[in-house]
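thoughts on my protein:
***
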Amino acid sequence: MKTCLLLTILAAFLFPSEASSQKKPGPAKKPAVVKSTSAVPSESEVKKVYRAGDYSQAVSLAEARIKANPGDRAMMVVQALSYGMLRNKEMVLKTVSRIYNNNDTVAIFLSTMPYNLSKEVLKSDGAWYMAEAHKANPKSAIVYLMEASYLLDDSMYDKAKTAALAGSALLSDNDAMSIQTQYANVLQATGAKESAYALINKLQSAHPEDSLVVAEYYAMLLTDKRYSESLVELNHLINLQPGSEKRLRKERAYLYEDMGRHNEACAEASALNTLDPAFISLLRKLGCPEAYVSMSPETIKSYTYDVDYHGMKYKFVVMPRSINMSSSVVFDWSMSIRADMNGKITIGKSALDTAHGQMNLFEKGDKTLDRLTTVWVSNAVYNEIKKTGKTVMSASDQGAKSFSVVNDDPDDGPTVIDSHGDTKAFKVLHMRSDDQKEEIWINDDPLSPMITHMEIGWSIELKELN
């Protein structure tokens, strides 16, 4: 249900100063200590006490402000909500009558009360508030709408449908468009689909360029998996709301995916990622190949890592000469820490086939490795990870450790700037030692299983490809 949307609409109408606070108060807590430099507490102090759950004190402090500022509606609202939490229904009615001088507004306020009560109070008093709201104004479409929403939240679908149908019959063209479109939503949720679509089609015919109407129609069609029609309305909505274009185009990418149009979903996501690198997460969620950087040594001249070695920060650059995991790996390297810190590494076939140890501390000059690997892991390590999700590696001065695949990586994991300046994601195997002290990320490609990131008491992370 779109309860939050509905309450926001009504809150702006009923008590604007409270419209930004939709959080339900919790059970009573330890009274808040208010230190005020004056006899009259500030509005923020009163609200702090209310949020702390000390409702009796909130009533008293609010009254002090009302005496100093007669007609302070925000404080009267705090009192009404506090009385509601205290289950003093008589004082709720008296306070609401004190705030509003017409039955229509009183009825609407009372119908919103269940959404401001704790679950315990709501269970016992929710129906009473709805009954009192109807008593104040038996012909309020908004009250029926709130009742239907309240009943839906309580999974009372038949009663919700009855309330929604009764309320929709009371709608008029004078009612706010937000209320009318919300009725279509509630009718659909209660199962009264024929009435829901009759209402939204009527609104669309009368207001074809109203973004509220188009947005609700789109949402209804999407809920019923009428994807082709949904796409038409979403395209229309994008034209109507240029300020929300990125958000709506993201929605369109997901819709394409739901329609089985994966290539179009990826094209949309890729275009968004060009506009804003934050959309790399969308590409990843959709499983688009465009999300991932190509790590192939055939196309990359250098890999630049950021190193933080116990507080000493510098660049480590790897320049591949030949990368063949079945025979040898040869690369040049340099470090920005000193001009003479450079050399060439050759990893032989025996190391590539079987090594479980890493040489991660470099000395200037050339070196050939027959029992260890570096920058790349061995075929043995990669294959063990792919087959079992586990391996043993010696990556630090702590010696050999057992590592396991981490499966809880977020969709917005590590990224890199590729040779075209675009933000791309790594497709990696994230490994964590069983003692939880070391982590290694490995490029998930048997042709080039490079280490992209390590945390082993010091850190190294691949940041740029050229």
